[in-house]
Amino acid sequence: MTKVFMSRPLPEAVQAAAREFCDLTVRELTTPMTPDEMVMSLADYDGVVPTLGDFYTADILAEAGDTRCKVLANFGVGYNHIDVAAAKAAGIAVSNTPGAVTDATADIALCLMLMTARRAGEGERLLRAGQWEGWHPTQLLGMHLGGKTVGIVGMGRIGQAIARRCHFGFGMNVAYASRRPKTLDFPAEAKDSLLDLAAAVDVMVLAVPGGAETHHLINADVLTAMQPHAILINIARGNVVEEAALINALQSGQIAGAGLDVYEFEPAVPEALRAMENVTLLPHLGTAALEVRTDMGMMSVANLRAFFAGKPLPNAI
Asked: What is the Cα–Cα distance from 52 to 77, expressed in whole angstroms?
């Protein structure tokens, strides 16, 4: 029977669906796989379900040699942890789970926008510490989002879902920077450059894929171009932002705040970020809803099922 290795425990419904057509082994740890575990998975299994943090690099693939594994059915839309070119050169197909994550990730972007702009995290900490002395007219004054301009960096599925929520839900103006022109079903202004976008918006939201092309896309130059009252939101990948430059911009007052769901060296989060009241920090909750994670897992299973049935991958990369 076909043997499949799942690198982290996925929802029970997903595991049950996989067991209908394969001999499934589920790694019970929730941490990323070690290099030895990745080499083992390629050598001993016909298919693998990896996820964020499982770095199937060219070196790992080379060390594994002529592998038994012929498909990596990634759990997640982002796949910058897999060297796709090296995998294909080794005769290994790669798939991902687009679509299933769009709305949940967009919701987290709005959560971060609201929490940061309205100082909700700071307020909750004040209350939990027993330091709240009651309402008064100038307490914790934040930024009202209605009528403000949101800048979307990367107007793909997730970027558009965020923009729709901002425009139709909050009456915000939308501007964006994207690699390709977009035909949109809502009003939005395309900016000629990332620096132009940074200078024009009150909130800048990052919704680009990870990888070499977007590494440190947000650096000191971009942060300097932002307005002093503006906030930065990152629900993309941690290394899209040069974390040291972001810390400097926040500490110096170059920007007013940040809302982060991902980090450059996660799970490590710098003490400098944790110490600042004007930063909202979430532990990578972008798709953390049972329905969403189940849908993602079912997409991975569908990719595996199709591959072993000799059919095209529904979500081939």
From this structure: 10
